[in-house]
Amino acid sequence: MSATVLLDVRPVEPKDRFDRIMGAYESLGSDQTLELTVDHDPKCMYYTLRATRGEDAFSFEYLEDGPETWRVRVTKTATSVGA
């Protein structure tokens, strides 16, 4: 069964955001989704996941693309087995 975790890090101190975002992603099970809301383009998350997990371990889809709010849907795929 798929599930979606909603995470809005706009009220979080900038220095704590990356750890909060990556922690939320790591807590996902296979085929679960993180819907992330931030006040800047979260492309650093995409590149971090691609470098550490591989392109097939997740999907990354923009739902809203600025200029003040960005929302992305990140789904951990069934082929993701940690890296």
Description:
With 83 residues, the chain is an alpha+beta fold. The protein has a single domain, classed as Translation Initiation Factor IF3 (2-Layer Sandwich). The protein has two helices and four strands; from the N terminus they run E-H-E-H-E-E. The chain is globular and about 35 Å long.
Keyphrases for this structure?
83 residues; alpha+beta; Translation Initiation Factor IF3; four-stranded mixed β-sheet; 4 strands; 29% helix; 31% strand
Question: Can you identify the CATH superfamily?
Answer: TusA-like domain
CATH C-level label: Alpha Beta
Order of strands, widest sheet: 1-2-4-3
Could you state the oligomeric state of the chains shown? single chain
Q: What is the gyration radius calculated from CA atoms?
A: 12 Å
Number of strands: 4
Secondary structure class reads alpha+beta
Global outline: globular
SSE topology:
Elements: E1 4-8, H1 14-26, E2 33-38, H2 43-53, E3 58-65, E4 70-76
Parallel strand pairs: 1-2
Antiparallel strand pairs: 2-4, 3-4
Question: How would you concisely characterize the structure shown here?
Answer:
The chain has 83 residues and is an alpha+beta fold.
